[in-house]
Amino acid sequence: MRPSSSSLAAPVPTIADVARRAGVGRSTASRVLNGSPHVDQATRDRVREAITALGFTPSQAARRLSLGRTWAVDIIVDLGSAESVERLRGAWAVLRGAGYEVILRHADSQGTGDQPLLRPPPRGGADGLLILSVPPDPAALDSLAAALVPVVAVDVVGGAARHLPTVSSDDIAGGATAGRFLSAIGHESLGFVGEAVDGASESAATRARLLGFADALSAAGARLHTEFGGQGAGSAHDLAVRLLSTRCPPTAVLAAGDIEALGVLAAARELGLRVPADLSVVGYGDLPPAKAVGLTTIRAQLPETGRTGAGMLVAEIGTPSPVPPSVCLVPELVLRATAAPPPGRRREPRQPAA
Fold this sequence. Notes:
disordered N terminus; 3 domains; alpha/beta; about 15% strand; 12 strands; 6-stranded parallel β-sheet; 12 helices; Rossmann fold; 6-stranded mixed β-sheet
């Protein structure tokens, strides 16, 4: 018995069906599908609507054969850094939205893990390489400029990636924004808590944030007190206890990052200081926990740098630029609940329990 026509599977839509429904040529539909920038927005929208209406799913194998691409992107990232993970979130969304598979390689900025070399993917392994927040290695980055696939560096500081397309966040400007804000609302004695800025590559962002902060305070005639140690909330807590237990403690503290700011808040509670009535605390980064605790912070455009870098890489895969483009995003102040003018009279902090 022959099956009825109603029981037969519907034919799988093809790129020709998409082109016909959108009223464009097959080659134009293919260009839209493959992310070509050489299609106007109205045409792109019609093709995408046709793809959605027909339920068209491109064959990845056919795309690879037709374009000579792998449709994969290699990312080197420090997965142990909260800021790097936020950049990765932004990059991931763009790359997956553009149809790319993502291959992750972990780079441990603390030097305690199996850090991969900064090297391009093997031939035929990926269409491009995205470097996110890894310690700068000028020699390795220079060699990547001659790689057979496009390479984009995000948050690689100090000019180390001078021959590559780059995306960065201006940490000096971000630190200065925090300093101007706190001095403008009346703070004259301020503190900074963060990892040691001893020239180590992993402390470059902290060093830049401190430089901008110090310059802004100097211009305002305010005093700066610093405490340096390790990364993380635990170290920042200990540094803040030491800073806030001095004879004349600061009335405001900028932490090198949001995670460190959580440690400062814990120290303030332990010392009996009310935030922001007795102590103002400002973080840096605008990580998800910052919003949860109402932390005033400097938004470092972390997902935005990842999105911008990924978009730049997709464009470079399509049409490489003769001159490496460079984009620098400006951080912005996010006002929440942990910063206010200084108190008219400071309370002496309690000593922490032994």
